[in-house]
Structure formats: structure tokens, C-alpha cells
Write a structure and sequence with these properties.
The chain is of the alpha/beta class. 34% of the residues lie in helices and 36% in strands. Helix 2 packs across helix 3. The chain starts with a helix and ends with a helix.
């Protein structure tokens, strides 16, 4: 209780969807400019999930704000190797975001996860592919959190 009173008296406030100028969002079909399959589906699902988690309704059409996302980069980078065999890889994923708030356009270029997303590439091919898939979903989720966080900060009243 004391911490809450201290924060309130110092001028700090918690920003959430309650303070946004919009209550719903329409997410257009995500464009995938890479050769990695199904990224558009994974990023769309991650964005929808994150907006819902923040109390913002996701509509198929007619939302207060329209969001367009384009995946522009997907790379795997070697993080660790033993005897010239790659044991751990990182996923590098970037997306460009365009937000249309009734004609007021906001662009977020080259959005990346603030976290380094890695996975173990050892074991069978199926096991490594499954871990890569999970890591890719995690990267999409982290980008979605970053995008929604940026929108909350930008559009807070």
C-alpha cells in the first residue's frame, strides 16, 4: 500500500489499455516477405493474443484502428558449436508495422524481439525442427508484446 501511494504521489502512473484512444483493432493478413513458411500465421496469432491480453478487442473488420504487419527478415544464426557442429541457434525476426488510426498513420520499422531467442539444434531432425518451431512462436510473441507496448505508450491519453 505504501509503495502504491508513493508512486501515485510522484506522478508515476501505470499505462494500460484503459488509457488508449481506441478499444478495438483490426489486424490485416500479415505479409511474409521471407522464405520461412507460416510466419504470417504465427505473427497474426501472437498479435491477436497480445491485444486480447491487454483488453483490446480484435475484430475481423471495423476496428477503431487498422494494423498491417509485414515480416521482413527471418534468419538463423549460430550461437554455439562443438567440433564445428552447431549446437545452438538464434532466431532473428523483424517485422514492419503500420497502424492506421482513422487516417493518422504510425509506422514501426524493423521491430525485433528485445530478447535473444535461441533453441538447441541437437538431436534428431524432428526434435530440432520442433524446437525451432517453438522458438519461432516465442519470437513472434515477443515482437507482438513489443508492438503492443509501443502502441500503448504512443497512444496513451
Amino acid at each position: 500500500m505504501l509503495v502504491a501511494l508513493t508512486l501515485l504521489s510522484c506522478g508515476y502512473r501505470v499505462i494500460g489499455s484503459k488509457f488508449l484512444t481506441f478499444e478495438s483493432v483490426t489486424i490485416s493478413a500479415v505479409k511474409n516477405r521471407t522464405y520461412e513458411p507460416r510466419l504470417e500465421e504465427k505473427l497474426h496469432n501472437a498479435l491477436s493474443h497480445e491485444f486480447i491480453n491487454q483488453g483490446i478487442e480484435v475484430k475481423a473488420a471495423g476496428g477503431d484502428v487498422d494494423l498491417e504487419a509485414t515480416v521482413t527478415l527471418f534468419q538463423l544464426g549460430a550461437v554455439g558449436a562443438v567440433d564445428e557442429i552447431i549446437r545452438e541457434q538464434e532466431i532473428i525476426l523483424e517485422a514492419d508495422i503500420k497502424v492506421d488510426d482513422q487516417g493518422k498513420i504510425a509506422m514501426f520499422k524493423s521491430m525485433r524481439s528485445p530478447l535473444k531467442i535461441t533453441f538447441q539444434s541437437t538431436g534428431s531432425v524432428n526434435e530440432a525442427a520442433a524446437r525451432k518451431d517453438i522458438a519461432t512462436e516465442k519470437a513472434c510473441s515477443e515482437i507482438a508484446k513489443e508492438i503492443v507496448g509501443q502502441l500503448i505508450v504512443r497512444y496513451a491519453k
